[in-house]
Design a protein that fits this description.
Distance between the termini: 27 Å
CATH architecture of the largest domain: Up-down Bundle
Structural class: mainly alpha
Shape: globular
CATH topology of the largest domain: Four Helix Bundle (Hemerythrin (Met), subunit A)
CATH class of the largest domain: Mainly Alpha
Order of helices and strands: HHHHHHHH
Strand content: under 5%
Number of domains: 2
Length: about 220
């Protein structure tokens, strides 16, 4: 039993680390500061070097096919990061973010992680989808991303309003206000989807990233 509990804790910790790096990369992708980009890329690279080292260890008991896949991913992350560095485009960042999130999602599903971390993952995923649709200027993808993000915030508002929620009253009120803000901004963008709404979308994206960061740190919506 102790071994199982330890393995679950390790998987949870690894999932949070990957998600934290995805958050940092998402922030770096919209930053104009090369130092911010360099720090996020360097930390993510170090993480994947550690993963690669772990996969090569004789003590690693993961199935060989999983180890092989993680080794391939680590090599890809290393090549992309070292070849482009701060000159990366948005699609490159999105690729690195999605890799971290996919592996994190697998770990979260495997250990049935806490709701707070699941919601943190969902917030980052919606932020990435909004960012991709905005950059591609794809109206159809933007509509889907906006709808998914709105549904997530409606869900968060419902949880915050729940009598079972253990959140402090101030936190509940802030989440409810943010949910209403997202709802209003979604309607604003939706009225004229073809219009340049980059500032509004960037605000919605940063809202998701900031709340996700808070959830990962300490908060729980439960």
């Amino acid at each position: 039993m102790k071994t199982t509990v330890t393995q679950i804790k390790d998987a949870e910790n690894e999932a949070v680390i990957l998600l934290n790096h995805a958050l940092d990369l998402a922030k770096a992708s919209v930053s104009k500061n090369d130092n911010v980009k360099l720090l996020a890329l360097d930390n993510n690279l170090k993480l994947w070097v550690q993963i690669e080292t772990s996969m090569k260890s004789a003590k690693n008991l993961l199935p060989q096919d999983i180890k092989d896949n993680l080794l391939k991913l680590s090599k890809f992350v290393e090549r992309l990061t070292l070849s482009k560095g701060v000159q990366m485009g948005r699609s490159d960042y999105d690729c690195l973010i999605n890799i971290n999130m996919q592996i994190s999602e697998g770990l979260l599903e495997a250990v049935k992680n806490s709701m707070a971390r699941e919601e943190a993952f969902s917030l980052v995923k919606c932020a990435v989808d909004l960012s991709v649709a905005k950059e591609k200027k794809n109206s159809a993808e933007l509509v889907v991303a906006l709808e998914n993000n709105l549904q997530l915030w409606v869900y968060i508002k419902t949880l915050a309003n729940s009598k079972k929620s253990k959140l402090p009253s101030e936190t509940k009120d802030n989440l409810i206000k943010l949910a209403d803000y997202v709802s209003g901004k979604t309607l604003e963008v939706g009225k004229n989807i073809e219009k340049n709404n980059d500032k509004v979308l960037d605000s919605m994206i940063m809202t998701n990233l900031q709340i996700s960061e808070g959830l990962i740190s300490n908060q729980k919506i439960a």
